[in-house]
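explain this.
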Amino acid sequence: MSTARFPEGFVWGVSTSAYQIEGASDEDGKGPSIWDSFPGGRNGDPACDHYRRYPEDVRLMKELGLAAYRFSVSWPRVLPEGAGRLNGAGLDFYDKLVDELLGAGITPYTTLYHWDLPQALEDRGGWTSRDTAHRFADYARAVHERLGDRVDTWFTLNEPWVAAFTGHGSGVHAPGRRSAADAFTGAHHMLLAHGLGAEALRSAGASRVGVVLNLSPVLTPAQLGDFTLEPSEEDTEAVARIDALLNRQFVEPILRGRYPADLLPVIERAAGLGHIHDGDLDLIGRPIDLLGVNYYTPIAVQAQPSAAADPAFPGSEGILFCSVPTAVTAMGWPIMPGGLTLLLRRLAREYPGTELMITENGADFVDVVTGDGIHDVDRTSYLEEHLRALRTSLDEGARVRGYLVWSLLDCVEWADGYRRKFGLVHVDFATQRRRLKDSALWYRDVIKRNGLSVSRPKRPTLETVAARAQVSRATVSRVVNGEASVSPEVRAVVLRAVQELGYVPNAAARSLVTRRTNSVALVLSAPGPAARRWSPPSSSTSRACWRGPASRSRSCWPTPPRATAASSSTSRPARWTGSYWCGRTAPARSPSGWPAPRCPSSCWAGPPSPHSSRTWTSTTWAAREPPPPTCSTGAAVTSGSSAARWTSSTSRTGSPGTGTPCARPGCTRCSPRPASTASRARRRPAG
């Protein structure tokens, strides 16, 4: 089989983090971290018990042929009070881990901060205190003194955006603060910690120093289908603002020594600029040797004047975070390998000469454990498609030296606990038994040949699998979707056929599956003039127009369309994105003929019910039934008989809000708070 090879010396590996796998949260002198104290955390024991089982885990890495292992050091394991007294037993653990890795021929890549700040420092102000950045430099120096003779590559921080804005803005992560000022202040102090820590490492003789950032292309919904589309002036501003908050707030200070000019007014309104001292950016912007890129999914936004700011994106008022009708992972993240190519192309263009490494890429899918293995075909497909996107970027000249899968092991997914499965290796948390998934075996083969097959093999169909297993097509579908209604004997036969044929389910179809309904209705219709809405002139546009589904290449009409029952309304803010409606209400009359509900910006799937809100997407009611909201009287509102179901990952707060006062259960005037796909997409990324 011909192979699309990667460059000689390309580094293949995996990543993990201390809190998510180590366990032993209060043993051998370790101090508490903010995650041990956070009400949404406290999942760090036993985790994967890596603290005791690291030799077994290193043997698994060697079996897979890994060349690199990126792990993080637990700050409170080394410095229980965050500063001062060193914990020798904690340093001993990392000493032994590094020796074990080197003995197996695996290069250690060390990350110093992966979100587990010592609680003692949080009690003194945490990342809102400038002193924490200086304590980080002391910590970096202490760890390098013990490990620096064997570790060449050091990353100061992992994903400071997540630590700052989900930990201090939305409060979804530890320490659970909900303050825009704290989020921006904490973000700057993390950048300062990077600068001070990098300086301490270099002065101690570190060979290579870098930082790891979560980066995502920010696009309009229409651009997700065609990257070349030019958005409207309003949408262009929305994209630029979110890009500044998510990406450029960290890339620009680190690689250019300055904050984006369009971001400074946003920071000043929320937090002032007093926390940014003279000389800070010179220190933060000193050259690095390696930029770690964590990529999972793009973010889709568009202008929506009535939209409130997402707490994880302070300053995002007037911007709607949009759900996208495409294949998604079990966490609801859109699967778009092309976004990785787009991201790397941009980094190569705007920051030429920067050496890159993909330090996290992976996906959460529901794994089914069978007697003959874990056949995680979705994960294998996800990884292969992203590696093909990376191979395209290398052909275009991107300087990417390696690729690290997130993650080696199924592990604690922060506030989501143990229910998320990102690992190449399955972990039974009750027994701590490790089992290689099919994706791990596939990755082993990729590493062995240093590449992918040039052409994708012809994908077997459900019918092919059914013929091989001598069962019905419906039975195959139930097995690959993980339904429990199939007998173990039949399941084993089907999974054996799946494995023999290399069957990979269609990810888009799998994304439509719900286990709370026995039917799915798909309504197809051509949107017409009735779906348009009148857009009066605004501060950003000089003319009024009708917005709606485009006729050929047009998406805006300078004059009103023919009068229709639907177009007579001028107060409905739903807007056509080029592929579907996105907004706070549906079109006046949906193409299916269903009456338009009063919607917040949630997304739904299935027909409407008397007491639920839906957003119409031109072909389906996209998203799911929420938990019953609570009326002001405290009575639960029933959700009706919809065939759809709610997915908590679409909820901005994870809980229903309170609606208009009412007098009885079942009222239609109470509704959940609007969802935010940005909060969903970054509530927490895996790593």
